[in-house]
Design goal:
Layout (H helix, E strand, L loop, with lengths): L12 E5 L5 E3 L3 E3 L2 E5 L3 E5 L4 E11 L4 E4 L1 E3 L5 E4 L5 E9 L5 E10 L3 E9 L1 H4 L5 E8 L2 E8 L4 E3 L2 E8 L8 E7 L2 E2 L3 E3 L1 H10 L4 H25 L28 E8 L3 E8 L8 E2 L5 E2 L2 E5 L2 E6 L13 H22 L3
Helix pairs in contact: 2-3, 3-4
Length: 350
């Protein structure tokens, strides 16, 4: 302890008040989220990723007056100053570092009717109001790749950010999605992310009740993705899954359809989970669908010759409860386990 009653490691150090989104270095200590720097050291002021510092004002507030501290433009988007023998504060003005006016703020994944990665973007007002600006996603698909676009005007706004959603097929959960904002000849940084990156972040963060609760769900989701990829890639590297018990409230249902009308069903595991029923009849058939909560679901119909197809799209994983190809059997088992985990996650506490 020094003569002022401070811990020894704070001797010769002083507090720095730093605006949100700004970092300084080097820092000698952090107490109650306040950084302390050593007198005489050169302190660098840095912005968050995707930004540069356009201007900065560092000062000592002595109550009845303000003493400005000299700063240096480092010509790399940062500024620096020499730490005085006093507490200091600063005001910082930032600007976007790319050529379009955008910065990545974060990611999330959504598990609604599809599996998707969401890119949260901070946008300059000019680009946010552009009618032509769009986010272009590039998603690997085997040896090829496919692109999807979402116009800025169609992005969802939340908390001051613009959210761009990219749906991902189950087999592509590990694939790295590239995202770039484009407006004419102006382009942003290329951002990359995957469903697996976000899911593994949740799996390994055990310092939050929310993350701990979500961990079993994302573990089952990633396993479903791995087995879906194995099935579609026609590989055989993953172990067979054991038996999965599927409790179905519909197990005793019987069909009241005329013989020969119903031809079969398929379940599509692309970015959307879609259930398709096939019927053979020359007359036009009409369909209605009501889920277990009494809500009516949209049924899309299409005819192919004498076959009529009734499709129910955007089936959430939690709603799925209820060949002899080994890989396909494993996919269905993994899907069932994922469905159970989703049902547990979304119904817990309801």
């Amino acid at each position: 302890i020094d003569k002022d009653g401070q811990p020894g490691y704070l001797t010769g150090t002083y507090a720095v008040t730093v605006p949100a989104g700004i970092t300084i270095s080097p820092v000698n200590a952090i107490i109650d989220s306040v950084p302390f720097c050593v007198k005489g050291e050169t302190i660098t002021i840095s912005p968050g990723e995707g930004y540069i510092i356009a201007d900065a004002f560092v000062f000592i507030d002595i109550g009845y007056d303000i003493i400005e501290i000299e700063i240096t433009d480092n010509n790399d988007g940062t500024y620096s100053f020499t730490m005085p023998e006093s507490e200091v504060s600063m005001e910082v003005e930032t600007a976007f570092s790319d050529g379009v006016g955008a910065a990545l703020a974060g990611h999330s994944i959504s598990l609604e009717g599809d599996i998707a990665v969401n890119f949260y973007m901070d946008l300059d007002p000019e680009i946010a109001q552009s009618e032509t600006a769009y986010m272009q996603f590039t998603i690997p698909n085997g040896s090829k790749s496919e692109t999807k676009t979402v116009f800025v005007k169609d992005a969802r706004e939340d908390g001051g950010y613009y959210i761009f959603k990219c749906s991902v097929a189950a087999k592509d959960m590990s694939s790295e999605i590239s995202a770039q904002l484009i407006d004419g000849d102006k382009t942003s940084t290329v951002y990359t992310y995957s469903v697996r990156e976000y899911a593994e972040l949740i799996e390994h963060k055990n310092d939050s009740v929310a993350y701990t609760k979500a961990a079993p769900l994302v573990e089952k989701m990633l396993r479903f993705g791995d087995y879906a990829k194995e099935y579609f890639d026609k590989t055989n590297t993953l172990p067979d899954l054991g038996d999965v018990n599927i409790d179905s409230q519909f197990a005793t249902y019987t069909s009241l359809l005329p013989e020969g009308l119903y031809s079969g069903s398929t379940l599509s595991l692309k970015s959307q989970t879609t259930l398709s029923h096939y019927f053979t009849d020359e007359d036009e058939l009409t369909f209605t669908c009501v889920d277990e909560n009494g809500a009516e679901r949209t049924v899309e119909t299409v005819r192919n010759g004498s076959t009529q197809i009734a499709r129910i799209r955007n089936i959430a994983a939690k709603e799925l409860s209820g060949t002899e190809n080994k890989n396909l059997i494993n996919v269905v088992k993994a899907l069932a386990a994922y469905s159970d985990a989703a049902n547990d996650y979304f119904t817990e506490g309801m």
